[in-house]
Amino acid sequence: MIVAERKPFDEIKGMVAGYKKVLTIGCGTCVAVCLAGGSKEVETLNAELKLNFGRDKIEFGSKTLERQCDMEFLEELDEIAGDYDAFVSMACGAGIQFLAERFPDKPVFPAVDTSFIGVNLDVGWYEEKCRACGSCVLGLTGGICPVTMCAKSLFNGPCGGTNNGSCEINKDQPCAWFKIYERLAAQGRLDQIKEISPPNDWRNQIPRKIIQPGYEERVKALG
Amino acid sequence: MKSGSNLEKILKAGHFAFTGEVGPPRGADVEALKKKISFLKGNVDMANVTDNQTAMVRMSSWAASLICLEQGLEPNFQMVCRDRNRLAMQSDILGAYAHGIRNMLCLSGDHQQFGDHPQAKGVFDIDSMQLLGMAKKMRDEGKFLGGADIDVAPKLFLGAAANPFAEPFEWRVHRLAKKVNAGADFIQTQCVYNMAKIREWIRQANDMGLTEKVAILPGITPMKSVGMAKYMKNKVPGMDVPDEIIKRLQGVDKKKVADEGIKIACEQIAEFKEMKGVSGVHLMAIEWEHRVPEIAERAGMLPRPEV
Question: Which of A178, A190, A199 comes nearest B167 by C-beta?
C-alpha cells in the first residue's frame, strides 16, 4: 500500500488560513489503512482545526471517499464542492492531484506527506519496500529489493560499509545485500548474484502511463 | 599497455607497487594541496585523490588530480557513484583523460547522510561495479555506455576497492571476482589490521586465479594513537582492528605510540612484499602526509623504481 504521514498541524493551519469554508477530504483506501488519512483522521484533523480557528472564522466540512485516485468516487463531491472555497485532501499525492484535476478552480491543500510504498509491520508501524523503479529485479535478489532496501540502491552489493549485517547509515538498518546473500545462500542460488547486474534502466524518470493489454482500443476511443 | 600510467608500468615491470593518498582541501587552498603533494612526490608511484570523501564537499577530485600532475605526482582519480549520473561520469572520464590523468578508482562512495549535506539526493545511478564496466567499455571498445562511438577513447588504468573483512567473509572473494570481471586492473583494499583474515582472502583469490588477472594492493594506515585505533575498531563501518593491535599500542610509552604504529605498518608491508598474490601496498596516511617520506624509507620502499 501507499503509506503517508500527516503533516505537522501548523503547516496545515497555515495553508487554510484565510479561507471561509474548507472541506477536509479523506481517502478510504491506503491512507486509511496506514492511519494517516481515513475518516477517523479527517475527524481528528477537523476537530483540531475547529478548536484552533474558532467556529465563526472558518467552517470545516468533512467527507471521506472510497478512493481519491478514481474519478468514479470523486464524482461524489460534485454536488457539494460549490459550498466550499478550498479543499484539504488527506489522500496520497496521486489522490490529491486527481482531486485537483476534477475541481480545477478549487484550491487543494495536502494534509499528508506521501511517504512510500510499503508494508504493515504492525498497527501504526510501516516499512518501505518498493520505489516503483519500473524494472523489477526481485527474482534475482531473493525477493529483497536492492533499489529500496540498500541505501545506495546498489545492484552489485554489498558495499564496503556493510557492518556485520547492518547498513553503514545505521546499525538498526539491515544491510540489504547481506540479507540477499543469506537468503540466496540458504536457497542454494548464490550463482545468480555472481553475475554482474548491468546498469539499471530507470523507467521512473518521466511521468508514466500504462495501458494494460486489451484496453488499447478503449483508451483510444476515450482520447 | 592499457593506459601507460606509471602504476601500470611499475606493475608490468614486476616491481612491488607503493601508492599513496591525497585528500583535496576543503576550499581552494592550492598551496596546502601542493604541500601535501610535496611529501608524496618521489616517495610513491601514484597517489589517490579522494572524491568528496566521507561525503564532505572538497575540491573536486579531477581538479586536484590536475594539480598533482602539474606537480609531478601521478594521480589516481577517484570517482564515487554518489555524486554523478552516468552522463557526468563519462564526461568527467573524457575530461580527466584529456588532461593527462591515467588512473581512475571506481567507488560507491560513503552515504551522503555522513557528510555536511545530509539532505542531498544521492545519485547512485550506477554502482561501482557498473562504473568499472562502463570505463572499461569506453577504453577497450571505444564506446559510451549508451553504445555510441567515442572519437578518442579514454585509456585509463582502472582500479576498484575491496573490503576483505566485511561479513559475509565467504562472499568477499566472489565480490572481488565480480570486480575483476567488470574490468578492474588493480584493487586497493580497506585498511588492513587483521593479517590472518587478509592472508586467507588472498589465498582464496590465488586459488580462484584472480591474482593473475588483477594487481592487489592491500591498504595500510599506520595508527597514530590508541584513540585512533579504538575509533577505527568501534566507529568505522567495515573496519577490522584486532585487540592485539590496540594492546600493542597501549604497551609502549605514550610518546612512542605513533612510532609503534609505523613499526606495525612496516611489518605488514614486509609481509605483503613476500606474499604470493600481492602486487604492492596502498599507504593511506590520513592527514599524516608529512610522515610519508619517513614511512616509505622505514618500509624499504625507497627509492621508487623509474620505469
Answer: A178
Pick from B124, B168, B174: CB nearest A152 = B124
Examine the pLDDT at A54 and tell me if it is beyond 90.
no
State whether A86 and A138 are in the same domain.
Answer: no
Cβ atoms A21, A84 nearer than 8 A: yes
Q: Is B223 helix (H, G, I), strand (E, B) or coil?
A: coil
Closest CB from B130, B133, B167 relative to A164:
B167
- The verdict on residue A145 lying in a domain is yes
Half-sphere exposure of B174 (CA within 13 A, CB side): 17
* Domain ranges, residue A26: 2-116
Instruction: List the grid coordinates of B150.
Output: 567515442
Contact A19, A85 (CB under 8 A): yes
The nearest alpha carbon in chain B to A159 belongs to B108
Q: B181 and A154 in contact by Cβ < 8 A?
A: no
Q: How many helices (H) and strands (E) does chain A have?
A: 9, 9
- Inter-axis angle of helices B128-136 and B86-98, to 10 degrees? 50
pLDDT in tens, B131-183: 999 999 999 999 999 999 999 999 999 999 999 999 899 999 999 999 999 99
- B6-298 has CATH 3.40.190.290 classification: no
Residues of A in contact with B167 (CB under 8 A): 162, 164-165, 178
Q: Strand A112-122 and strand A2-6: pairing?
A: antiparallel
The yes-or-no verdict on residue B206 having pLDDT over 90 is yes
Which residues of chain B does A181 touch, with a Cβ-Cβ cutoff of 8 Å? 168, 171
Strand order in the sheet with A86-89: A59-65, A21-27, A86-89, A108-110
Q: Mind listing the pLDDT tens digit for each residue in B231-286?
A: 999 988 788 999 999 999 999 999 999 999 999 999 999 999 999 999 999 999 98
The closest of B202, B189, B193, B173 to B274, measured between CA atoms, is: B202
Q: Which of A81, A116, A151 is the last residue of a domain?
A: A116
Choose among A158, A161, A164: nearest Cβ to B110: A161
Query: All 3 cell numbers of residue A5?
Result: 504521514
Whether the CB of A109 is below 8 Å from some CB of chain B: the reply is: no
Residue A55 predicted with pLDDT over 90:
no
- CATH of residue A67: 3.40.50.2300
- By the 10 Å C-beta count (0-12 exposed, 13-18 middle, 19+ buried), A84 is classed as buried
Cβ atoms of residues B54 and B82 within 8 Å: no
User: Residue B297, SS3?
Assistant: helix
Count of other CB atoms within 10 angstroms of residue A164: 12
Q: Which of A202, A208, A198, A155 is nearest to A177 (CA)?
A: A155
Note whether residue A143 is domain-resident: yes
Closest listed residue to residue B238, CA positions, set B159, B179, B175:
B175
Whole-number Å distance between alpha carbons of B47 and B34: 13
Which grid cell sits at B305? 623504481
Q: How far is A191 from chain B (nearest CA, A)?
A: 10
Q: Which residue of B has its CA nearest to A178?
A: B168
User: How many CB pairs below 8 Å do chains A and B form together?
Assistant: 96
